[in-house]
Amino acid sequence: MIKHPWFRSLSMRILAAGVPFFVSQMSAPAAYQILAEDVQPASAMNPMNSAAAGQETSANPPVEKPMPPPPNSPVMMVDEVVPPAVPKETPSSPMPTSPMPDKAGAQASDAKQPTKQPEPKPKSADQPAEPKKTEPAKQPAPPKPAPSKPAPPKPAPTKPAAPPKQVDKPFLSPTGVDLKKGAIRVEDAGPDFALQGEYMAWDWSAEKGWHWLGIQVVATGDGTFEAIAYPGGLPGNGVASRATMPIGTPQIKADSELLPTLWQGSGKATPEGLMITFNEPSEGRKFVTKDGQTGQLFRGDGALISQAVKWSRKSQREGARPPANAVILFDGTDNGQLKNLKISPEGLMQIGSETKGAWQNFHFHAEFKTPFMPFAKGQARANSGFYLQKRYEVQVLDSFGLIPQFNDAAAIYRNKMPDLNMSFPPLSWQTYDIQFQAPLFDEQGTKIQNGRLTVWHNGIVVQNHVSLENKTGGGSKEGPEALPILFQNHGNPVEFRNLWLAELSPQVLLASTTQPVPACLPVVATPHACVSTTPCCPPAKHRRPARCRR
User: Fold this and answer.
1) pLDDT for 242-257, tens place per residue?
2) In what order do the strands lie in the sheet containing 495-503?
């Protein structure tokens, strides 16, 4: 160790000057340590950003930190954080440390880190001052909505206006008659009427061999058709009811055991003709007609079975003459027996009339013709009726080719359906023969016995001595007094003729003394018909006549 006084004095001087320097270096802030080592000015980093983000300082180079949480992160801040002011100097940090940087900070983070620049010289007082960069204005917090006043009560919802009623466009026949309202003459009925009607053909099955097949084709408007086929013949000509229909049954299905066996089918007319496809039997049946007079019956596979021909039936009671004691209600002229009588130019009675007389027990004969209304359905299809004593209605309706229901033709309206649907096609004359027995009442006006009713439709019994439990819904109240007969006006152009009435004693209304039912009705067939004129009595040999085999 050098003990020279001069060296000792120099050492003490050096030591006295160096200790404060090292102490000042050890106590300097960390941020300034990094800048000192990087030879960068202290203004290159904004300490406010570091403090706002909680940035830790170190003597080592800055380490890239993870990105802030996504907006939907559970740790997302509830209150919006306003970013700090942008410093005048370009930041040296490679990515922002604030969770919500502004555009300037985002652009700076994407840019490359600038090269190190020496500390700028201080500006003299003679140099003009640089314009200060304006800081982005802080977004004012959205004003809090004023407390809303209670909404006024909503007005009661008004019912929407009903849509305008659609006008039903007419469907005109070639002669200009609107078929949606109905045609009362054959020449106004149009081409569909020529195809509609009843046909007869021979059918064959392994169980029955050769047998009659009666086909009823019904026009339903604009070239569409429905049909029913009866193995054994037409109703009343080879086909009879199986049983008496129950009272009060509103509807019945096609496969009911009460009905005769029948098939249902449908089809559409084309310029080549009409083809009806039936859903039964298992191998199928197709009926084809081109002219509405003749036709052919095929199996489902197209094999021809037999020829068919149209039949025009006529009731054996049509034109029936009244007995000597009968009251002639209408014979084509006004004889003073009817109120509100309207007669057509053809001498036919229109709907809406009423008898002037009243009767208790009687046999009533009427002939009527329903209009051709292919577009109408159900109760809108040629509706009228006979209100006996203005209490009990026997329905008049175009029910041709339908399964009988409790409001169809010859039904005791909404009380009992007919046992068999004996309706002829529209524009055909049909007959009702009605025997009515009034109910019995005691001296106090209490009913002690129901009325009775028997109806022949086109000569066939369809209501056999039926007990009348009560009046029809719209009829007059039951009572011991006699009332007139009303011909119901339902707005459809039904026409009547040959109306007469004969008074009867109650004894003749017993079931055992009712008029016998003919075994087989005479039928008026078209010329050159290839079927027997008595189809209920088929020939022994099931062969077609020679003229049909040619």
Assistant:
1) 999 999 999 999 999 9
2) 327-330, 495-503, 362-369, 429-437, 451-457, 460-468
Q: Report the 10 Å Cβ neighbour count for 365.
A: 21
Instruction: Assess if residue 350 is contained within a domain.
Output: yes
Half-sphere exposure of 220 (CA within 13 A, CB side): 14
Residue 39, token pair as written in the block: 């030879």
The 10s digit of each residue's pLDDT in 244-299 is 999 999 999 999 999 999 999 999 999 999 999 998 998 999 999 999 999 999 99
In angstroms, rounded to a whole number, what is the distance separating the alpha carbons of residues 90 and 116? 11
Q: E-strand spans in 249-303?
A: 263-270, 273-278, 285-289, 294-299
End of a domain among 259, 277, 311? 311
Same domain (yes/no): 205, 264? yes
How many C-alpha atoms does 223 have within 13 Å on its Cβ side? 8
C-alpha to C-alpha distances, 400 to 61, 130, 347, 409, nearest whole angstrom: 104, 108, 25, 9
Residue type, 38: D
| Amino acid at residue number 245 | M
Q: Is the Cβ–Cβ distance between 245 and 418 less than 8 Å?
A: yes
Which residue in 274, 275, 253, 254 sits closest to 263, CA to CA? 254
| Cβ contact 337:399 at 8 Å | no
Q: Hey, what amino acid is at 476?
A: S
Contact (CB, 8 A) for 269 and 223: yes
Q: Which domain holds residue 475?
A: 326-512
DSSP bridge pairs for 352: none
The secondary structure element, H or E, covering residue 306 is: strand 304-311
CA 265, distance to chain mean position in Å, is 22
Compute the distance between CA of residue 254 and CA of residue 228 in angstroms, rounded to an integer.
Answer: 10
Question: Which residues are bridge partners to 460 per DSSP?
Answer: 457
- Token couple for 434: 């009605």
Q: Is residue 281 part of a domain?
A: yes
| Within-domain flag for 405 | yes
Tell me: pLDDT of 380 over 70: yes
DSSP string over 169-187:
PP-B-TTS-BTTT-BSSGG
pTM for the predicted model, two decimal places? 0.65
- CA dist., res. 530 & res. 545, Å (int): 7
